[in-house]
Amino acid sequence: MPLNPVSLPLNVMHFARILRLVGLPIGPGKVITALEALQIVDISQREDVFWALHAVLVKRYAHTKMFRLAFDRFWQAPIELSCDDSKDVSAKLDATEPEEAQFPGRLNDSFSGSSSHSEYAFKIEEDAAIDWSAAEQLSRKDFETMSTLEWNEAKRLIANMRLPIPQIPTRRFRMRKGAARIDMRATLSTMVRNGGFIDL
Fold first, then answer.
1. Separation between Cα atoms, residue 75 and residue 169, nearest integer Å
2. d(CA 105, CA 40)
């Protein structure tokens, strides 16, 4: 469905908010740039709008699939706003709830605006084994199919993850004239600068 020029800023803000909720780093500056990009394309053409927004809002290839899914749903049901519409903009943003489709979990969460995810059972108890069970469940899921709650929990687990790399103490030397040990790094660097000769 082509975008209405009157409601274009509202739709771009809504789309940026959706992308931010599903994990794309979208700031206010990118929203402004996206609006500027849409000024030079035909907003009635789906492909033109898609690639204009993609060029501004997507910086990593890994985000392309999520962007495409969000855009498909966004294009099907844009927010309509007339010139004399007196309703609050935030009410318009919160009122959008397209029909359910086969989309990743957190994309559905973002469009519906739901913050409670009762369907996902984390079963948080005092027993630490329950936390391990939740982590085990997340380790088997695809990032794109996670709900917002699962996505945030996965990010927390990754941030707390410690790689099994042993800590090996190393010794660093300080430069000092007249020392018994030769500084090979400085010696080779000087040799390169002097064309292969070492001053003795």
1. 57
2. 34
Contact of 55 with 37, CB cutoff 8 Å: yes
**CA-based torsion, 21, 107, 150, 95: positive or negative:** positive
Query: In this structure, what are the phi and psi dihedrals at residue 44, rounded to the nearest 5 degrees?
Result: -85, -10
- Residues 6 or more apart from 3 whose CB is under 8 A from it? 11, 43, 44, 49, 78
**Residue 120: is its pLDDT beyond 50?**
no
Rounded to whole angstroms, the Cα distance separating 52 from 39 reads 10
- What is the model's pLDDT at position 51? 92
pTM above 0.85, yes or no: no
Give per-residue pLDDT as tens, 71-103: 888 888 676 544 444 344 445 445 544 444 344
Nearest to 5 by CA among 52, 56, 39, 36: 39
Q: Angle, nearest 10°, between helix axes 64-76 and 46-57?
A: 140
**Could you give the percent of the chain with pLDDT greater than 70?**
60
Of the candidates 113, 70, 66, the one whose C-alpha atom is nearest the C-alpha of residue 90 is 113
